[in-house]
Amino acid sequence: MAVPLSHAPDQLAPPPSSADIGVLTALPMEAGHLIDRLSHVRRYTSRSLTVVEGELEGRLVVVLASGVGRESARRGVEHLIDGHRPRWIVSAGYAGALDPDLNRNDLVAPRALVDDAGAEIVLDSSPFEAVPTVRIISRLLLVDRVIGDASEKAELRRRHQSDAIDMETFAAAEVARARRVPFLSLRVVSDDARTDLPPEIGRMLNASGSYRVGAALRALWGRPSAIKDFWNLHAHGMEAADRLADGLQVLIRGLN
Predict the structure, then answer these.
(1) What residues are paired with 142 via a beta bridge?
(2) How far apart are CA 238 and CA 240, in angstroms?
(3) How far is it, in rounded angstroms, from Cα 187 to Cα 182?
(4) Domain of residue 106, residue span
(5) Distance CA 14, CA 131 (A)
(6) How would you label 222-247 residue by residue, b for 16+ Cβ within 10 Å and e otherwise?
(7) Distance between CA 229 and CA 223 in Å, rounded?
(8) Each residue's pLDDT tens digit in the chain (256 positions)?
(9) CA-CA distances (angstroms) from residue 4 to 50, 136, 193, 205, 222?
């Protein structure tokens, strides 16, 4: 049974209510600025996952950072649906650009999701017509690792005819579709198609979506310039998360 962390153990806590919108991210950083905007916040922990419930724009919103990768995303969507019964699921977070015309901090919503085997899930992008800051893109490609090399991004764009990549949305959409819950995706570009990421970044990220400090220090010890890269990436990530929260708030306001 999920127990709200905001209640003392000897108090009878209210059960989770049916939510209007469930927002799934991989990383806590991606969700942080949105959570800061919620009022009347409760936290429910069950099966090692913590769901943050609160009100925003007159809607009851539940937010879960599930961890990195497709299996974490599947588990996260199941958890939100089973525990909170949202009327919408929104997959939100960072995306890497494959389209050279996309810039860091651009908000994007895909018309379709694809995986590396060629499977496709078509999404309804019409709710984003009320969010003028969002750019509708054709396809968001599922990948299984951080892609930091600009030449590899160009090859993925050529091979899969996709505009951006992430590691969770396709898998999350599969579960939502099977459970018949309407599904949307809103991503913010964290790295453009022209920029190489430090090779250490992917190795430092663990499945829970946090940075392994020991691994980070070992990876960066022999290349001090990478420390600056890492902190710049962190600062850019916080900026992108704030931008993402802006877009999500406008989207939530318009969903019925």
Answers:
(1) 166
(2) 5
(3) 17
(4) 3-11+20-254
(5) 34
(6) eeeebeebbeebeeebeebbebbbbb
(7) 10
(8) 454 554 444 444 466 779 999 999 999 999 999 999 999 999 999 888 999 999 999 999 999 999 999 999 999 999 999 999 999 999 999 999 999 999 999 999 999 999 989 999 999 999 998 899 999 999 999 999 889 899 999 999 999 999 999 999 999 999 999 999 999 999 999 999 998 876 666 555 544 444 444 555 555 555 656 556 666 666 788 899 999 999 999 999 999 8
(9) 9, 37, 41, 28, 44
- State the Cα–Cα distance between residues 69 and 31, nearest whole angstrom: 16
Give CA–CA dist 256/122, Å, rounded.
Answer: 20
Structure tokens at 161: 């005819």
Query: Would you say the pTM of this structure is higher than 0.90?
Result: no
Identify the DSSP state of 126: G
**Gap between the Cα atoms of 96 and 235, Å rounded:** 16
Alpha-carbon span 191 to 196, nearest angstrom: 8
Q: 186: number of CA atoms within 13 Å, CB side? A: 31
240: amino acid identity, one letter: A
Percent composition of the chain: helix, strand, coil (DSSP 3-state, to 5):
35, 30, 35
Cα–Cα dist 148/135, whole Å: 23
Task: Count the domains in the chain.
Answer: 1
Do 77 and 172 form a contact (C-beta atoms < 8 A)?
yes
Looking up residue 113, the CATH number of its domain turns out to be 3.40.50.1580
